[in-house]
Amino acid sequence: MGHGRPRAGARPARLPGPHHHPRITAATNKAESCNGFSKWLGFGGVPAENDPEEQEKLIKFNTLPANLVVFQNALDVSDVVRQLVAEGWGITADQLGQIAPYLRAHISRFGAYATDDLHRQPDPFDPLLKEADFTDAELAA
Predict the structure, then answer these.
(1) pLDDT of amino acid 140
(2) Which of 25, 110, 120, 128 is deepest in the core (most CB within 10 A)?
């Protein structure tokens, strides 16, 4: 008897098998992309002290602007997709799934920002991409 030890070659049920590795890698890459984007966008650097409260505050204050920029990027991508569909391009869910919301090229972190246009109301948010073809979408389990 092995007294609770797994037999040779057996793996515990809670560990994913090799067929899960691509999904795990994809999820890890998404998380790392998000963390890298947040770090790139963030201000303040590293707290001078190893104070958990200050570290948590820094993370929260850097996460909010990163989430706002990701949301704006998603809105901008949605607008471009709608324009492409209106021009006759066929856009699939697989193609949309290849676009990451961590776009940076258009961001001027330390640039000049106009504040004289703040009175303008933004267009209403439309979360649906009815124009895109999702019939071939393979849903993640």
Answers:
(1) 36
(2) 25
Phi, psi of 133 (to 5 degrees): -90, 110
What count of other Cβ atoms lies within 10 Å of the Cβ of residue 102? 18
DSSP string, 67-123: HHHHHHHHHHHHHHHHHHHHTT---BHHHHHT--S---TT--TTS----TTTTSPPP
Alpha carbons within 13 angstroms on the beta-carbon side of residue 95 total 13
* Helix, strand, coil shares, percent, the chain, to 5: 45, 0, 55
pLDDT for residue 139: 40
Cα 112 to Cα 123: distance, rounded to the nearest angstrom: 23
Distance (Å, rounded) from C-alpha 94 to C-alpha 73? 18
Q: Is 44 within 8 Å of 62 (Cβ atoms)?
A: yes
At residue 81, does pLDDT exceed 70?
yes
**pLDDT number for residue 141:** 31
Q: How many residues are given for the chain?
A: 141
